[in-house]
Design goal:
There is one protein chain. The chain is α+β, with helices and mostly antiparallel strands and about 350 residues long. It is built from 8 helices and 6 strands. The longest helix is centred in the middle third of the chain and has 72 residues.
Length: about 350
């Protein structure tokens, strides 16, 4: 019999873990009232606007990453529920056929009263054996009917759960598309502003960025020990990516956004951590003081927890900072983002 499987929606890209929205909300409520710093007032207006748009794009990127992770998890749930419902429907189809056959046999044999059938039987012993079989089938029919009703209830429940998950998946995909448009819009605005600058101003900005990248490649942070062997492995993996470009939504190995770098690096060390900076903010032991951090600890930045990187020692962060930049070392104090806390995985 046909299983009546419901068609599956298109598969989405997979991702590993759930976001920590609640943790982020608690974190925000416990922080001081200080907001993220405004763009450097010494910068020209256009450059300050570009910096702000890049910051907003990276914040939207983490929301996009969270929605993408939820979509992957929901897709798995939908697939599992639909597969279970299809198997249940096949079982019910077989059970329905068996009950129908039993009922038809009972009807055919029940047309003559049992006492008359016994009198007309040429072999009373054989008839009594058949009558006993009829009694057994009747008891089995009751059992099958009860099982059928129970499985039918289970099937309806699974289909209801699948329908709810499908709605959640559609809503999450809508959110994904909205965040994608928001990010692309902000990057387009930034590029439009950048195009209004003179060739000399563009060259100066590019040189400043390149200088920051070159300084990163020469950074010597000594031999300060990491918090653990796994943290050391993850930090080493991240160091091997210095010079790779920032790309929103990217998880390596050739390009990264901020949480893409940290989650990729820990994966190389055999450790699975959440995909987004907000979820990574509660993925391990919280370290409130910069002075207590060790290389390999995560650093959570911005009041909305929308940026993450590795503590690299000596007041430095190793991170993928923003569009147009590369994975690099940078002074935490000069990054333009407030330090919230560290996380030891």
């Amino acid at each position: 019999m046909a299983s009546h499987r419901r068609p599956k929606p298109p598969s989405q890209a997979r991702t590993t873990v759930l976001t920590a929205t609640a943790a982020a909300a608690v974190a925000l409520s416990t922080q001081s009232a200080s907001a993220d710093p405004l763009p450097d007032p010494n910068k020209k207006g256009v450059e300050a606007q570009i910096d702000r748009l890049y910051e907003e794009a990276t914040q939207a990127t983490e929301k996009y990453n969270g929605a993408k992770e939820r979509a992957g998890s929901l897709q798995k749930d939908v697939d599992s529920l639909q597969d279970a419902a299809a198997r249940k429907q096949a079982d019910l189809n077989g059970l329905r056929d068996r009950i129908g056959a039993i009922a038809a046999a009972q009807y055919r044999s029940g047309g003559i009263a049992p006492s008359v059938q016994l009198l007309l039987s040429s072999d009373p012993d054989a008839y009594l054996d058949q009558a006993s079989l009829v009694d057994q089938l009747s008891a089995r029919e009751v059992s099958d009917l009860q099982r059928f009703q129970s499985q039918q209830r289970d099937l309806l429940q699974q289909r209801s759960q699948a329908a709810t998950k499908l709605k959640d998946l559609r809503d999450t995909r809508t959110e994904l598309e909205s965040k994608k448009k928001e990010i692309q819009g902000k990057l387009a605005q930034a590029q439009k502003l950048l195009n209004t600058l003179s060739a000399k101003e563009k060259a100066r900005i590019a040189e400043e960025e390149e200088r920051a990248n070159r300084a990163s490649s020469r950074t010597d942070l000594g031999n300060e020990s990491s918090a653990s062997s796994r943290a050391a492995e993850a930090f080493a993996a991240a160091k091997s990516r210095v010079g790779m470009p920032y790309v929103w939504g990217a998880t390596g190995p050739g390009s990264f956004d901020c949480s893409g770098l940290t989650s990729w690096a820990f994966k190389q060390a055999g450790v699975s951590i959440p995909r987004t900076s907000q979820a990574q903010a509660s993925a391990g032991t919280r370290i409130n003081s910069l002075g207590d951090l060790k290389p390999g600890d995560l650093i959570i930045m911005r009041t909305d927890l929308s940026h993450v990187g590795f503590y690299a020692g000596k007041g430095q962060i190793l991170h993928s900072p923003k569009p147009g930049a590369q994975v690099r070392y940078e002074s935490i104090a000069r990054s333009g983002m407030p330090f919230m806390w560290g996380v030891r995985i």
